[in-house]
Amino acid sequence: MHEQRLDRRLFLRTAAATGAALTVGTTLGTQPAAAAPGGFPDYTYVRTLLTASKLKYNPTGEIIFPCVRGVYDKLSSPLGRYYLYYAPHDPPGGICLAYGDSLEGPFTEYPSNPIVSNDWSPHYSVSHVSSPHVLWNQDADEFWLYFHGPNTTTRLARSADGINFTYDKVVLSASMLPAGTTETSYARVFRHDLPARDAAYVMVFMTNNTTNHRDIHWGWSADGRTWTYDQQPLIRHTDVDAVNVGGPHLLHRDGSTYVVYNKDRSSGGDIMITEVGNDFGKRDHLGVFYNSRSAAPENGRAASPCFGTDGGVPYMIYEAGERLAGSIAVARG
């Protein structure tokens, strides 16, 4: 057991070093799920971190898509050791921030949320903005925020302090994918070298089309700003017997690369895992990564995970509960 725990911690340190988002998780009085494929940590629910009804900025009564970044080693006077980004989805949405000193919480809501709104003159005025993913870009020495709004468009903004952002550009739109694509959103970006493609960054994201079934797509970039996108899905909903899949995140372990993502609640509501390999040439669907339990707060759905370590302990932060009616929770491995 001790050797297994050390192995898990080594994995999460590796994941963090390669740009994987930070996450939280552990159990208070619940039993862990069956072992995750590939020797990954078995995450168990610890507590709820954020609930929409308890937030000052709460335009729609719902929040989604957490992304946590350790800032203690990047900023001289941060608000806390960790910044937790999240957003409502429904109009007007708004990119929000909370901060804390532990991945298990508590997190304090930033008093001037949203830090990015659905109206950013002269760059855009849209129905909503949501799904924040923040990358620490070591090449630029900046925080890079990828977010969607509307559902057809993913945008980039940049910041020196993780709070005050400057608009950059559109990095992804439905027009860049095959005809009939209706959504390109929920993107996460990671530092990942692909020498054969002259790329240093990888994006994984969700798409929808006129069939109204959601898949996972991917793209690659030399600089994180200008992207090339594979025109074929990385993971099809039919590959894993789902109506929809979404919320993808990249992980690394034992010299290979994996994508974790969630099934829709009608298809089981679990977080799944697929090995894609370092060159994204594999499609080895390994099954359930995290089993969403029927008990609150998950109520049969876990989604949009992000990962990291705190004091050598692996964590996962994720959406818990029915879409647009859930909370942000933390689990420990």
From TrEMBL:
<protein>
    <recommendedName>
        <fullName>Secreted protein</fullName>
    </recommendedName>
</protein>
<dbReference type="InterPro" id="IPR006311">
    <property type="entry name" value="TAT_signal"/>
</dbReference>
<dbReference type="InterPro" id="IPR019546">
    <property type="entry name" value="TAT_signal_bac_arc"/>
</dbReference>
<dbReference type="InterPro" id="IPR023296">
    <property type="entry name" value="Glyco_hydro_beta-prop_sf"/>
</dbReference>
